[in-house]
Write a structure and sequence with these properties.
- The chain is an alpha+beta fold.
- The chain has helices at residues 4-17, 65-70, 93-102, 130-137, 223-229, 237-244, 260-271, 275-281; strands at 34-36, 42-44, 77-79, 90-92, 142-143, 150-153, 161-165, 168-177, 180-187, 197-204, 209-215, 217-218, 233-236, 250-259.
- 26% of the residues lie in helices and 26% in strands.
- Strands 5, 7, 8, 9, 12 and 13 form a six-stranded mixed sheet that branches. The protein has a four-stranded antiparallel sheet with strand order 6-14-10-11. The chain has a two-stranded antiparallel sheet with strand order 1-2.
Length: 282
């Protein structure tokens, strides 16, 4: 008689083998219908609408009842969506979403941005590989201490600048698009860490100064999303060059990053409020 350990290994093996031939994704919670092509390749229900498998064979019209019953087992663990990128973790349905939002193997937009929307890098590197991807594939990266006054040379395709603060990595990004200058700050961390940090960007010209305060953005958010949500500083390129460029077409700026969570703790400490007191107020 098979032991519980043997049964668990069998279920794990079946779960690991259940990968869609078309999208290469593992089984997902709530999507229990799986199909096969004539070469017996597994096809998930999202890819079922395609008339053919990528091997060229037609896809069956009926789903597999055995797989459907397997995926209906209470407490079944599901492989992370980023399995194809190297993640080996598996979780029950309730914990899967939280893990995937912070998984170091999740795909994020490339930091390389050109002046045209269609000039973006076509790759979506893994989170843990995004800096290395930029350095190696695009053969460029800029390092500057953003806590000091910086000078940047005029360029239509801005290179991002990287710095560290509170053991976190931040990336200052700039983009010229449709005659507008956009500037924002990414945190190289999970989306849950975004709420803890803000930044103040100051542009310094001969006769003009401009200041912008905002929250840092998650590295998962592409430029288009940030632009539509108003999460970046924007100024017409003509105004920007007139107010902030010097005779060498350089501009000066400073960037301050703040840890909002640490500041709240400091304020509580000074007022005699403990973390437990704060928790009791929520």
């Amino acid at each position: 008689m098979a032991s519980f350990e043997d049964l668990n290994k069998t279920v794990t093996g079946m779960r690991n083998a259940l990968v869609c031939r078309v999208c290469e994704n593992p089984a997902r919670p709530g999507k229990r219908q799986w199909y096969r092509c004539l070469k017996l390749h597994q096809i998930c229900q999202d890819c079922k609408e395609k008339t053919e498998c990528i091997c060229g064979q037609p896809i069956s019209l009926e789903s597999c009842m055995i797989i459907e019953q397997l995926l209906s087992v209470e407490g079944l663990k599901f492989n992370c969506i980023n399995t194809k990128n190297g993640c080996e973790e598996a979780f029950v349905e309730n914990a899967l979403k939280d893990h995937e939002s912070e998984c170091i193997y999740r795909e994020v937009p490339c930091l390389y941005g050109k002046c045209s929307q269609h000039g973006q890098c076509r790759y979506k590197p893994s989170f843990y590989y995004v800096i290395q991807h930029y350095e190696e594939l695009h053969n460029k990266v800029s390092f500057q201490d953003l806590s000091k006054l910086c000078t940047v040379k005029d360029c239509l395709s801005w290179d991002p600048f990287k710095c560290t603060f509170n053991n976190q990595t931040f990336v200052f990004c700039q983009k010229y698009y449709e005659k507008v200058e956009y500037k924002w700050v990414y945190i190289l961390g999970s989306p849950n860490e975004v709420k803890h940090y803000s930044y103040t960007l100051k542009l310094i010209g001969k006769e003009t100064k401009a200041s912008f305060e905002g929250k840092v953005a998650a590295i998962d958010e592409p430029f288009e999303t940030l632009k539509k949500a108003g999460k970046c500083f924007a100024i017409p390129h003509e105004v920007f060059t007139a107010q902030f460029f010097n005779e060498d077409r350089e501009f000066k700026y400073s960037l301050e990053i703040r840890n909002l969570k640490a500041e709240v703790k400091d304020e509580n400490y000074e007022s005699g409020i403990s973390d437990n007191d704060e928790d009791s107020k929520k």
